[in-house]
Amino acid sequence: MKLPPLGYFDALLDPITLPKMAAIRVQYDDSRVEDVGGRIREELENNRDTEKVRGKTVALAVGSRGLKNLSVLVKTTITVLQEHGANVFIVPAMGSHGGATAEGQAQMLEHLGISEQTMGVPVRSCMEPVIIGHTVDGVPVYFDANAASADYTVTIARVKPHTAFRGRYESGMVKMNVIGLGKQRGADYCHFQGMHNMPENLVKIGKVSLERSNLLLSLCVIENAYDETCKICAISKRDILDREPALLKEAAARLPQIPFKDLDVLIVDEIGKNITGGGMDPNIIHRFASEHMKTEPITKRLVVLDLTDESGGNATGAGLADVTTRRFFDKIEAEKAYVNILTARVPASARLPMIMDNDEKAIKAGVKLAPDTDLNALRILRIRNTLCMSRMEISEALLEQARENSQIQIVGEPEPFRFGKDGTLEKNGFLYA
Fold first, then answer.
1. Which CATH architecture best describes the domain 36-253?
2. What's the predicted TM-score (pTM) here?
């Protein structure tokens, strides 16, 4: 895609003066698990099903999300299972992610620090699932072939609100079995009737999957608003359907939020599949790719500056932004996102925003596109990504509102945006601490 020459936009964008920005901290409940490895060991040791692995092969299913402490979660689980006599290997449990290829899914795990070299056990990646049963209306229930070949499967699943539907089960243990381990085919069947039917389909397929699969237990993880591990539970297969709804409510209560409304521009430094399935969490930015999801908008325009390297070119979620950069565009490997989008049936996630040559022009374009603004009192908020929500930058026009919010601490004097000669926004040490 060819962009217009730089001078084409100068007359429109150069006159725009960006406001100074002040650093703020947003306070949330910061309770967390201090000893993650110790808690994992405690949960697994206290679960009677752990004893069943002696002399057995166990497939440890790991997803595509960049969970905090993921390496500790995986390594400790492997160690405890091995101490109980299991022969463990890792399988990717990520539906159609990674371009729906075995190599792509293994690479996604490696980006997250999970490989044979780091974990000390084989990673067996394939995209050919087996059918382990059918729902009452004949829908096939798929399960990763490598996982199915083991005596047992154990999953590591973060429970949190989904980015495209609402139900008793959203992102979590049931979804990991149905979609993560169902691979592309399982994900495709579950999404077949659209996102508005996902809650019903997830339960219908999930019940069969839990009953017929070799799942032993799931290591359930909840993270707090600081992206820290705050709860770990080893839940046996028979208890998952009963326990997950309460865990989902707890996770939803811990979800961070943007403490301002009526923004002119929201700047998100980076999006990516390692951050959330939608690249940036719609529950936080109040923009959804699923047309049936209703929300109250919090910003007129949204600017995304970059795509994480861990995404491997999968730019799912770009369509929720209004403006992005050439740097973002050059990283896109469309086929990786398209497999994911075709499976989920949410084309809005794959649409391209306006592409500007650099960060400075992208931000100014966001301002230019925002209707009904006071150019002398622009309401701009900047975040690193939707996992890093305790540190933000706000424009001077938001300072008064920030001072009235007991949840917010202003930690610096307003300073101008700092761009390099090429228009790249300098990484803010505060946001990236």
1. 3-Layer(aba) Sandwich (3.40)
2. 0.81
